[in-house]
Amino acid sequence: MGFSLSKSGRVFWSSAVLARKALFSWFSPSLWLMQLFTISLFQIAFFVYVTKYVNNPDVSVTYVAVGNALQSVAYVSVFSVSNITSEEKWQGTLTPILATPANRFSLFVGRAMFEVFNGILTVAIAFFYAAVIFGVDFSNTDIVALMLVVLVTSFAMTGFGLMISSLGLYLRTAMVIANIFLFIGLLFCGVNFPVSYLPSWLQPVSHAIPMTYGTDAARAAVSGSSVFDISSLLLQELAVGIAALVVGYILFIVFENVARRKGTMEEF
Amino acid sequence: MWSSFKHQALIFLADPQWIIPNIIAPFVLTLVALLLFRNMTGPVVLYAVLGGGMMGMWGNTLYSSAYSIESDRWNGTMESVLASPSPLIWIVAGRTMWNALIGIINAIFIFIIAEVAFQAPISIADPVLFFLALFLTLLSLSALGLVFCSFFVLTRSGRVLTNGLEFPIYVGTGTMFPIALLPFWTHPLSLSLGPTWGIDAMRYAAIEGYAGLETGFAGDVLIMLALTGVYLAISIWLFVVMEKRARRDATLGRF
Question: CA quadruple B77, B82, B87, B88: dihedral positive or negative?
């Protein structure tokens, strides 16, 4: 068991290192930085100005800026992670990878780990914009609680992204579905308006996405709630993220077996 | 350009799922805006619906600009396309026109949802002027897409750049709010974008008693046409320069 764990750990680490190297082999560091610094800015700006225009009493600029700052994690932890299996397909590397006896869980979770770091950086920059450009008041913020929210959200949403990535093994590409889930959070996760605005039959969808708990926890932390105060939200978010990861792993194994049986591993 | 337009239509029909990545963002953003606008009635809702339609057209145009060159690179057809006697710009223009046109599907969805789910009263004050403004805005968006596309000849990062260009145009052109809300120093940038004038013209034609930019409908249309001409001139020049550079440096199919 110990030996197996060490092998899985090694696969996990080498997979994480390889993912970072692969990213920068086609993506220049300057473009990566440009994306990191611009992607959240205009999304926050868009909703802040819509909010100013509509003057909805339930939704303040702070509400929208904090929600969108946290939601910017989706660009990396949902979109990039969702495309992991599809990109392996496109590059013709999926079959050789799946021919190895490496533990699938370690392999693909390792692939996504750089995106957790990337996601944390993206959200940190977005919160900086919220404070400096959009005038969000962070004077009462419990910084430790907010940092924990960002960390948990980044991990949980990466788990969610990996679940979608498993579908990429079966579908021609996960790009289409990744795009849907990239933006769906704006509608379902209380990013721009309370979840109660949605029809009651749609609200359970909100609670199946980790981001919903993250946005509530982030707003609470910004208004001064401590780690203890938001612990229940964070635990729920983590639980949903882990559940998504487990479902994703099961789907991955199922689709891998289907692809092996039908000979459709790289069908696209 | 016409052949390229038809070719792009056939590619779309062969695999229509690709419209989803292109229009999902504007579609979701409009639904969010409609939910935020829910306590408001009358022309303000139409304001959001028109903005959503414009975003759909831009989303599709922008993605098609990026993928136009990138998909040729991936499919290994880039060199063959450039070896043909037709200038690259007209090939890309045909593709971009088709994709901007397909972006209207998003606008139709938005209209239907606004009517059915939000019971928003959607009526166009002057349909003839509205469709004229819509058509000219479509041309303007396509021309703007061509300017961006010319840069994608040189880079393998078209997809990444595309992600960064979607929201700035939504914000800069005031698709969902008046540009007067933006900081004053950004106004010249907004006014240099043809679609800013296009969406204002559409609002003039659609909303009774709308008071937007001082130029009015006719002024909006004329300025948009002038800007579209400028975009076309810039893109023609850029395509020639970029193509020459890519041939000289032998970097055409590099990815």
Answer: positive
Sort residue A209 into left (φ over 0), alpha (ψ -120 to 50) or beta: beta
Q: Is the separation of the CB atoms in A126 and A149 below 8 Å?
A: no
Task: Using pLDDT thresholds of 50, 70 and 90, give the confidence band for residue B115.
Answer: confident
**Cβ A187–B32 below 8 Å, yes or no?**
yes
Residues of chain B with C-beta less than 8 angstroms from the C-beta of A49: 171, 176-177, 181-182
Q: Which of residues 97-156 of B touch A (CB under 8 A)?
A: 156
**Nearest Cα residue to A223 out of A129, A127, A132, A139:** A139
Closest CA to B228 of B193, B204, B254: B193
Answer whether A181's CB lies under 8 Å from A75's CB: no
Determine, yes or no, domain membership for B254: no
Phi (first) and psi of residue A30, to 5 degrees? -65, -40
Is residue B123 one of the residues assigned to a domain?
Answer: yes
Say which residue the tokens 């869980």 belong to.
A105
Query: What confidence score (pLDDT) does residue B72 get?
Result: 79
Local confidence band at A1 (pLDDT 50, 70, 90 cut-offs): very low
Can you give the residue range of the structural domain that contains B11? 2-249
Domain count, chain B: 1
Residues in chain B: 255
In this model, does residue B129 exceed pLDDT 50? yes
Exposure b/e, A24-36, CB count within 10 A at least 16 = b: eeeeeeebbeebb
Buried b (16+ CB within 10 A) or exposed e, A239-265: ebbebbbeebbebbeebbeebeeeeeb
**Pairwise CA distance, residues B108 & B103, whole Å:** 9
The pLDDT assigned to A33 comes to 86
The interface predicted TM-score (ipTM) is 0.84
* Residue A191 near residue A185, CB atoms below 8 Å: yes
Six-digit token string for A135: 């005038």
Tokens encoding A3: 């030996």
User: Is residue A213 within 8 Å of A233, Cβ to Cβ?
Assistant: yes
pLDDT for residue A137 is more than 50: yes
Q: Tell me the C-alpha distance between B27 and B32, whole Å.
A: 9
pLDDT at B26 over 80: no
Using CB atoms, which residue from A27, A43, A51 is nearest to B36? A51
